[in-house]
């Protein structure tokens, strides 16, 4: 079955079995007993198809989350499956990495003719590229059909899941119009242009930025970091000041050093040179939430953080309400969905009372 059905999991780490990228691509064919010349040809073909030849010989540990998931996809497709199943493959990826991954999946479907079944909650890109959509709720199929048909059904039903659909569809639903439901951004722009030419538009109120104290929470001064002595630097002269109360989004493509920078800030890795200062307690929520779970239930995991502290029950109740974990407290963390695991892991991090 492994040669006929390809499967990519939620967590990139859970599917990796070797320490080198090239060996990860070859592992499946080796397990199926193919000879070396055939394996080399297939691996080279897939590496070129997915554009990973630049990091073909890298250690897997050096890859970003997006690169690992793209490698997992290539390692599956090297066996030429006729059906590819993807279980929320972008749940632990940043928006740019997720976009690159969806582009690769679309290429697999278009150019290789592979049937793709994808379970996904991040719908902005996967919804328009799908030929058919099934919407599930409570273990039952709520709606099915083309993306446009499903959008119209959810709007008529007034179901809350409509709020997760692509922006073009949500804007269309909020504006009284007899036009057909747009799906991709291109169709949404065309519809909005026609609507704007026929109606008077009002100004959007400007949101005032929140006031900050001006006190630093984190400072980085000329920080350099690399994983091994003979490898290139991942961080090169990074300087940064984050103020207390500020919300800072770190953006960038695969392998640009986002996760590395965060791990240096919270002290998981030590910079090669430069100075890192944190003013208060720093906590980090990792890409893989399962890395934080230690106990058999969510309740025990939360208690493990602040057991014996005064007011622990009230603090846990506050965090449980904030993260919407009321129905999940007595379940095993590994039995939760990816989104539920993220909320449970966030609750653990909040109980450490970071500044």
Which features would summarize this protein structure in a list?
355 residues; alpha/beta; three-stranded parallel β-sheet; three-stranded antiparallel β-sheet; 12 helices; 8 strands; 39% helix; globular
Structure notes:
The chain has 355 residues and is of the alpha/beta class. Helices cover 39% and strands 14% of the residues. The mean pLDDT is 87. The chain is built from twelve helices and eight strands. It has a three-stranded parallel sheet, with helices on one face. Strand 4 (133-137) and strand 5 form a beta hairpin.
Q: In summary, what is this structure?
A:
The chain is of the alpha/beta class. The protein has helices at 21-31, 36-49, 65-77, 95-112, 123-129, 147-157, 167-174, 185-198, 258-265, 298-306, 312-323, 338-351, and strands at residues 5-8, 83-87, 115-119, 133-137, 140-145, 216-225, 235-243, 273-278.
């Amino acid at each position: 079955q492994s040669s006929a059905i390809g499967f990519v999991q939620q967590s990139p780490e859970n599917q990796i079995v070797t320490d080198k990228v090239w060996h990860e691509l070859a592992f499946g064919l080796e397990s199926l007993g193919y000879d070396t010349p055939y394996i080399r040809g297939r691996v080279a073909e897939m590496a070129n198809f997915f554009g990973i030849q630049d990091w073909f010989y890298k250690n897997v540990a050096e890859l970003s989350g997006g690169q690992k998931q793209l490698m997992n996809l290539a390692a599956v497709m090297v066996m030429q499956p006729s059906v590819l199943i993807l279980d929320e493959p972008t749940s632990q990826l940043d928006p740019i990495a997720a976009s690159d991954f969806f582009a690769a999946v679309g290429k697999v479907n278009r150019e290789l003719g592979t049937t793709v079944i994808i379970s996904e909650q991040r719908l902005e890109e996967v919804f328009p590229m799908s030929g058919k959509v099934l919407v599930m709720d409570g273990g039952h199929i709520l709606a099915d059909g083309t993306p446009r048909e499903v959008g119209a059904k959810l709007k008529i039903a007034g179901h809350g899941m409509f709020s997760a659909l692509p922006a073009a569809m949500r804007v269309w639903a909020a504006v009284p119009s007899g036009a057909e439901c747009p799906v991709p951004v291109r169709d949404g722009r065309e519809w909005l242009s026609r609507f704007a030419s026929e109606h008077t538009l009002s100004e959007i109120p400007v949101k005032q930025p929140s006031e900050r104290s001006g006190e630093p929470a984190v400072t980085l001064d000329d920080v350099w970091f690399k994983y091994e002595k003979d490898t290139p630097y991942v961080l090169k002269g990074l300087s940064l000041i984050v103020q207390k109360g500020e919300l800072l989004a770190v953006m960038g493509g695969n392998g640009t050093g986002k996760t590395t920078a965060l791990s240096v800030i919270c002290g998981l890795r030590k910079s090669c040179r430069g100075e890192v200062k944190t003013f208060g307690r720093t906590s980090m929520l990792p890409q893989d939430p399962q890395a934080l779970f230690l106990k058999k239930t969510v309740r025990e995991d939360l208690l493990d953080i602040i057991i014996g502290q005064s007011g622990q029950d009230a603090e846990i109740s506050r965090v449980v309400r904030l993260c919407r974990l009321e129905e999940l407290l007595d379940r095993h963390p590994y039995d939760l969905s990816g989104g539920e695991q993220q909320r449970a892991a966030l609750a653990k991090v909040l109980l450490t009372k970071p500044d």
